[in-house]
Amino acid sequence: MTITRARWRGWLAQAALLLVLGGLLWAGVANLVHNLHSRAITVGFAYLGEEAGFDISETLVAYDATSSYAAAFGVGLLNTLAVSAVAIVAASGLGLALGVARLASNGLLRLLATIYVETVRNVPLILQLLLWYGMLTELLPTVADAWTFGPAYLSRRGLTLPWPAPHAGWSAGALGVLLALVLGGGWAAWAARVERRGGRRLPRLVPIAALLVLLPAGLWALWGAPVAISVPRLASFDFEGGKTVSPEFTALAFGLSVYTAAFIAEIVRGGIAAVPRGQVDAAQALGMDGAQRLRFVVLPQALRVIVPPLTSQYLNLVKNSSLAVVIGYPDLVSVSNTTLNQTGQAIEAIALMMVVYLALSLAIAGLMNAYNRRVRLVER
Amino acid sequence: MVTSSAAPPRPALWRRGWNALRRDCFSSPANGLTTLVLVGLLLWGGARLGSWAFVHARWGHADVAACNALAGEGACWSVVAEKWRQMLFGVYPQGQQWRPALAIAVFGAMLVGSGWRACWRWRRLAVLWLAGSGLSGWLMAGGLGLAPVASDQWGGLPITLMLAVYGAVAAFPLGVLLALGRRSQLPVLRAVSVAYIELVRGVPLVTVLFMASLMLALFLPEGVSIDKLLRAQIAVILFNAAYLAEVVRAGLQALPKGQTEAAQALGLGYWQTQALVVLPQALRVTIPAQVNSFIDNFKDTSLVVIVSISDFLFAVKQAVIGDLDWRHYFVEAYLFAMAVYWICCFALSRYCRWLERHLSR
Hints:
The structure holds 2 protein chains of 2 kinds. Chain A has 12 helices and 8 strands. Chain A is mostly helical.
């Protein structure tokens, strides 16, 4: 009796919720249609095909002011991905080092790592970015007096590095790296499957390393084996040759890495500390050497603890890269904001931006969940 | 563990310190070498930093010329001495700045009160928050004997505290409802809650702020407009609620099923079960996580500078970057802002650490 009444109440409550949400939506859309009509804005994504008319300071693909808004959006997305990828790699490395340092036997090292983590974590990222960016653009010397590190230069214009002179061979080599990563991943998955099925352990490290070296090198050689490297040289006003990484990119990548590394350090520390001391002792008693202990005993157990929170840190990093807009790095948000101001298509521009971030979040979460399934404890 | 009734006498302090130093810093040759290298690096870096920040620095009131004379050799802390009012209170009318100062104190008292265990009763918290909100609102806005000050003149630290405190207080009920909705048996309710939580957590706060500042107006009837500050506040609340919902959900999941079943066996309905049995326990175990979420929220409020809300960071930035004379000393100003944020966040995280120990006893 009461169960059916409770069920009725449940359905009634849900119907009411739907009614309220629907009503809000209906009222909102009605207002929207009216407002758009009175401001003479046409809804839709047709604007994406129009000429953007603004320049973007740094692009990974060909783009100029006559390109379309869609192209500008793509450029922004690629910039977001580029800075996130660089920062994820750097933050992981730095975070790992700091996490290990927080467990070091040396007390002073431990103390310094703790100070780093506690300082960086408790200050807003946006403030750190503003500080780095200001220092890079105002306190560094001008191009004429740039700091020299061998063939590389650091100045207000950014970081200038020697870079391969444009040639199809280099592109082929870069493609080779991507191809090797895909093939290597495939080989690892295949080897894991064979091992699960029959217990035969196929070598993984050597073939994948060979693939990573030989495939890019082979493609590079096949496409003419270019060796010309463009070395930057100080001309009258600016550097000639080489590759200049903008202060915006440098500040953002550096700031994101420094900030996220503090969080990753805590995760790594927690993960390693979660492996009971007895496990290491037992492995030692079985005659395993240091590398084997790390490879077969400590890491598999630590990774199980580390991976889920690490995923959310990577997600945070990608989302935090949207702070690029305060230092003028042309990322997705920055480009969308310009587009929005020029066209007035606020809804479309913001919706596109959100969909892209959602898709990125889901993609990273999906990848890390797949990995997590592999490392987690298999219970009977 | 060996316990003995006659504990050996504790060695002298210097002896214990010496032992700790030997154990931590000189246990082996490699360890000792590491220590020496680190000490060397620290001395080198510390000497340079100390010479800039203290030895050659200029403190107290001074004009720009005096700072420029330092030629970058020392820090110009005078920028803080000259500009602290603008940094803390934004463009709030000069003669009335005791009011935002008091409002900062009121917000501080609200935070301290909420963290004080004797206050953890719903009625006491409600009184505290209502009184605090009313008082700080009156101080900022004026009326009832105080000169009125429009919200576009508010700025600085009170805005940051306001965004953070209301961002947590108002997000709390919404977060609890979303967490309950996510674990509800009712499919529509569950779907709506999951969609909201995952959608908000999947996008950066910047986009939500953009939505509130640029898109919201299009969905409102013509002629109706919401204050810019209030729109940012709503965005912070809606964003924070999704994260709080996940915090509360962790608490709900940690609760043994027997609790709900026992409550149902006693004849309690859904809301009675949640209010009297489930939530008191679930919220209690997640208090440290809630404090952590508040720290994140506090740091995140600084993002409102992107939509030109005059919070503390914005005021600091305006105070130096907006002044051609002083703009060269932005490092000192940003370090001051960092110190303020750091003190707040570090104190909160220490409190959180203390709570974790205190509550588990």
